[in-house]
Amino acid sequence: MNINTTKIISLLFFIFSAFYLYTAYQIQVFAFDENAPFNARTFPIYLGYAGLFFSGLKLILPDPDTIKVEHRNLAYKKTLLLIIVSIIYGATILKAGYFLTTSLFLLSSYYFLGERRWFLMFFLSFPFVAAFMYFIHGILEIYLRDPFLQSIGVMG
Amino acid sequence: MIEGILIGLKTALTFQNIFMVMIGCFFGTVIGMLPGLGPMTAIALMIPITYGFDPATGLILMAGVYYGAVFGGSTSSILLNAPGIPGTVATAFDGYPMAQQGKAGKALAIAAWSSFAGGTLSAIYLLFMAPSLSKVSLSFRSPDYFALMILGLTAIAAFSSKGQFLKAMMMVVLGLMLASVGQDSLSDITRFTFNNMNLTDGISFVLIVMATFAMSEALSIILKRNDPTATAKQVSLTELGSIKINKEERGKMYKTIPRSSIIGFLIGVLPGAGATIASFLAYGMERNLVKDEEKEKFGKGSVNGLSAPETANNAACSGSFVPMLTLGIPGSGTTAVMLGALLGFGIQPGPRLYMTNPEIFWSVIMSMYVGMVILLILNLPLIPYIARILAVPKNYLIPLILFFSMTGIYVMSFNNFDIYLMIGIAVVATFLRLYDFPMPPLILAFILGGLMEENLRRSLLLSNGSWEFLWDRTLTVCILATTILIVVWHVYKTLIKNKS
């Protein structure tokens, strides 16, 4: 059997399905539902077996169309930086508020992707987010909590 | 039906809805043009905004984005030989050679008129077919629905997997597994939440769509350094040429458009098929039907070769609305996203939709005509200007896509757990995409998961736990037989391919 990344993904999916199936069997159902033709764990159990079946087939059957990915050509560093910036965005948005966090997220993303035109970067972050926030909050009336803007008295 | 058409016109022709169609068409055209970003990404980005409107307006906006994106995809196919969406790959076969001959303007005009005609004709087919199909589908029972969902999931896996059927089926199962997270709809028992309160209500469908399409698309573009604007320098306003179509070319289009619109519409109706298959089939059919002299021109800038796929891919868009509006089963990944959005509005698409919410049912159909006219107005005179959008550098495009994705999630839940979950799913989806694991089957399965469990529950309870319900009714048997045929056909095709 030729081991390639697709097979490894299939193996991981097989393990995941086994774990899912185990968890499905652990779902607590009401006593009167235990022997019912259908209860909360029935469908997940079928899904667990289906996952094992399809990933098992993918593992066993030959894979003539092996996908070859040239890892050298992949920009892992930039992608990772964007993911980290996104995580930081998630971690700070509730405390710092939508406006400041989103503007800084955009500014840093432009920077990490190699942009250095500061005026354009600034214009497409702070004023852009302010305009978008006005559209969401002011026109569509979707409430956006923003402790930062509240602290400086811009938002009520 | 006349009453329905009038209701639809009344709703579709309000100032707000015409404006929404315009916004949707424009936004869709822009996104569709950018290689790598398709209608699903465009619609996913629009969902949070649609929740600010009533359901009819929201759906009209999304429908506008949909056919706008398919329409826009042809521009990058013709000008850059870089299709914005898979459905416009066949457009590039003759559109790009035509542009290379200095007839880019003419190619864009042929594409615009063909799309307009294809979309308009298929909207007429939809108008007549949808109500009758709705009446037929009223006879559907739970076992039929369960079988129909199995058929839809199998078909989308077979058609969207590029020969990787098992990978697609794994994505189907993953989608169903993700849908099972949260409270069970009947007993309220929590499943797979691992005592995390944030998962009690399940995973939001918008989160899944944003993560697997918008965000993972953006990460994939960065990861692959696949700059969608790298070749934008080729676009020049002075090189587009005239947009006038002469009499001989019009004559060719008159023959191509009707037959391509029919094939496009019928393919679009099939669950899981869609614009890509429709455009390739129409291209192939047209090549077989034209005279030998014209056949020689295919691939070198043939008018028929450009008109056929453009007509078919737009006709398929309208066709894919048929199963969604009448059966509640989406015909494509894009309509699956729309179905999810409708469920978010608290509306259940299906056979009763045109009775319970006639304004939604008819206004979507009627807005298609408005949309087609707007698209024509947009594409013909404005295309040289819209084409400049192809020059937006990825340094700005990618952060903006991430921004819209995360904002979309944040405004729905005001919860940073959802942002983390979205990032996690997007990272996994990006990795899976690298190895050609298709995402549309996952989305369709995620959306159908709850309905599928519900129908299986009813069927099993009615048959007292026996699986006999699968062969008790003729309709169920027919649907399951079609499913088996698709699987057998796919296995046979793979075996033939492996042998050769």
How far apart are the first and last residues' alpha carbons of chain B, in Å?
52 Å
Radius of gyration of chain A: 25 Å
Output the helix-strand order of chain B: HHHHHHHEEHHHHHHHHHHHHHH
Secondary structure category of chain B = mainly alpha
Instruction: Detail the poorly predicted runs of chain B.
Output: 227-235
Morphology of chain A: flat
The whole-number mean of residue pLDDT values of chain A reads: 88
List the helices and strands and how they pair.
The complex is a heterodimer of chains A (156) and B (500).
Chain A: H1 5-26, H2 42-60, H3 76-96, H4 98-112, H5 118-123, H6 126-139, H7 147-151
Helix pairs in contact in A: 1-2, 3-4, 4-6
Chain B: H1 2-12, H2 15-33, H3 39-50, H4 55-80, H5 89-137, H6 142-160, H7 165-179, E1 182-183, E2 190-191, H8 205-224, H9 247-269, H10 275-289, H11 292-295, H12 303-319, H13 321-327, H14 333-344, H15 353-356, H16 358-386, H17 394-413, H18 416-434, H19 440-462, H20 469-472, H21 474-499
Antiparallel strand pairs in B: 1-2
Helix pairs in contact in B: 1-16, 2-3, 2-4, 2-16, 3-4, 3-8, 3-14, 3-17, 4-5, 4-12, 4-14, 4-16, 5-9, 5-12, 5-13, 5-16, 6-7, 6-19, 6-21, 7-19, 8-17, 8-18, 9-10, 9-12, 10-12, 14-19, 17-18
